[in-house]
Amino acid sequence: MFWPMFAIAAGFLGIAVLGVLAVRVFVEAERLGRQVSESARRIGGAAEELETAAARAASSVDAL
């Protein structure tokens, strides 16, 4: 009687541990997604600044 109850308890604990780990993975994936979107926004802003600077440099060269 001990071994079947032990097996059931061990199975429940294993499922509980997997559930906790799944929640942690989900939270970290959400955080990574937010960081990726923030990085993409910053890269887009830097690209716009570079484009503006290149246009100004090109107009300066044309003026010479």
How would you describe the overall organization of this protein?
By secondary structure, the protein is mainly α. The chain is built from one helix and no strands. It is rod-shaped, with a radius of gyration of 28 Å.
Summarize the helices and strands and which ones pair or pack.
Elements: H1 2-63
Alpha-beta classification: mainly alpha
Helix content range: over 70%
Strand residue content? under 5%
**Low-pLDDT segments:** none
Q: Give the rounded overall mean pLDDT.
A: 94
For the largest beta-sheet, the strand count, sense and barrel status come to: none
Radius of gyration: 28 Å
Query: What coarse outline follows from CA principal-axis ratios?
Result: rod-shaped
- Cα(first) to Cα(last) distance is 94 Å
Number of helical regions: 1
Q: Could you state the order of secondary-structure elements as H and E?
A: H
Kindly state the number of beta strands. 0
Organism: Streptomyces siamensis
Protein name: DUF948 domain-containing protein
What keywords describe this structure?
64 residues; 97% helix
Short structural description:
This protein is an all-alpha fold and 64 residues long.
